[in-house]
TrEMBL record:
<dbReference type="GO" id="GO:0005524">
    <property type="term" value="F:ATP binding"/>
</dbReference>
<dbReference type="Pfam" id="PF00005">
    <property type="entry name" value="ABC_tran"/>
</dbReference>
<dbReference type="InterPro" id="IPR017871">
    <property type="entry name" value="ABC_transporter-like_CS"/>
</dbReference>
<keyword id="KW-0067">ATP-binding</keyword>
<dbReference type="InterPro" id="IPR027417">
    <property type="entry name" value="P-loop_NTPase"/>
</dbReference>
<dbReference type="InterPro" id="IPR003439">
    <property type="entry name" value="ABC_transporter-like_ATP-bd"/>
</dbReference>
<protein>
    <submittedName>
        <fullName>ABC transporter ATP-binding protein</fullName>
    </submittedName>
</protein>
<keyword id="KW-0547">Nucleotide-binding</keyword>
<keyword id="KW-0813">Transport</keyword>
<dbReference type="InterPro" id="IPR050166">
    <property type="entry name" value="ABC_transporter_ATP-bind"/>
</dbReference>
<comment type="similarity">
    <text>Belongs to the ABC transporter superfamily.</text>
</comment>
<feature type="domain" description="ABC transporter">
    <location>
        <begin position="16"/>
        <end position="248"/>
    </location>
</feature>
<dbReference type="InterPro" id="IPR003593">
    <property type="entry name" value="AAA+_ATPase"/>
</dbReference>
């Protein structure tokens, strides 16, 4: 580790760092902040979920890490360098996969490369095939998006985000359009992929149980202006499975977060 690497209180390297981050979209002094005073260090290859009431600024934080938005207060940095422009090294997965309907699944996965460089190589195609296989999509690689279920389309979106092998994976309510069973399964699939291809993940969700099931830590935000209510360590063993959901500790953690969300002024 070089001496440029910031260390947080636990002695681990901070990969993504937010220091005193605040933002308002409307710069007029009388308008309220959207997020305020956010301090967070995310370690390399850590899985951090963000939960909080609608409108508290979760997506705003994610856009800041991607460099799509520069905070009006404080600083976001990645590996000790301030984020000042859109980053190339992030993969983003949204609620909808937004696949191009006229391209096959494989070509959709390769599309960002084609768009960026005008071409892709045989080794890119090999990597696309490997990722599709890991996501259980090999037999759908030559199908058109409308031949796939919503869960499969979302898997394609994840594979597409991973193709460029980004170090940071930003996921904004990626499974919220899926039915409960598919959602749980794709969560486990995501954990398998994350294990094989470690990434630093920032995962926004409205589902408290999903946050607990998937993540290493959970940032709980207050209602607008979004501030940090708590940063909860999820000390559940990995690999996580359906058994995890039935464990007493899982219930304790979800209850604790529910306490914050439903009684935000009362310490949990
Ligand atoms: N581009 C923008 N211009 C102006 N206001 C915005 C913009 N984007 C978001 N906002 C406002 O900022 C606040 C936070 O929005 P954001 O989408 O970050 O919250 P969120 O916690 O992700 O919400 P949700 O859970 O409903 O998706 C909201 O009040 C929203 O209306």
């Amino acid at each position: 580790m070089d001496n440029q690497t910031p260390i947080n209180d636990n002695g681990k390297a901070a990969y993504v760092s937010m220091k005193g981050v605040g933002h308002k979209y409307d710069p007029r002094p009388e308008t309220p902040m959207v997020v305020q005073d956010i301090n967070l260090d995310i370690h390399r290859h850590e899985f951090v979920a963000v939960v909080g009431p609608s409108g508290c600024g979760k997506s705003t934080l994610l856009r800041m890490v991607a460099g799509l938005l520069i905070p009006s207060h404080g600083q976001v940095s990645v590996f000790n360098l301030p984020v000042t422009e859109p980053r190339d090294d992030v993969g983003i997965v949204f609620q909808k996969a937004n696949l191009l309907p006229w391209l096959t699944v494989r070509k959709n996965v390769l599309f960002p490369l084609k768009h960026k460089y005008g071409r892709y190589s045989a080794s890119d195609e090999k990597r696309a095939n490997e990722l599709l296989e890991m996501a259980g999509l090999t037999q759908f690689a030559d199908k058109m998006p409308d031949e796939l279920s919503g869960g499969m389309q979302q898997r394609v979106g994840i594979v597409r985000a991973l193709l460029l092998n980004p170090d940071i994976l930003l996921m904004d309510e990626p499974f919220s359009a899926l039915d409960a069973l598919t959602r749980e399964q794709i969560g486990f699939d995501l954990l398998d992929i994350w294990k094989e291809h470690p990434k630093t993940v920032l995962f926004i969700t409205h589902s408290i149980s999903e946050a607990v099931l998937l993540s290493d830590r959970i940032l709980v935000m207050s209602k607008r202006p979004g501030t940090v209510l708590d940063l909860i360590e999820v000390d559940l063993p990995r690999p996580r499975s359906s058994k995890t959901i039935n464990s007493p500790r899982f219930a304790e953690l979800t209850d604790k977060i529910r306490g914050y969300i439903y009684e935000p002024n009362v310490p949990a």
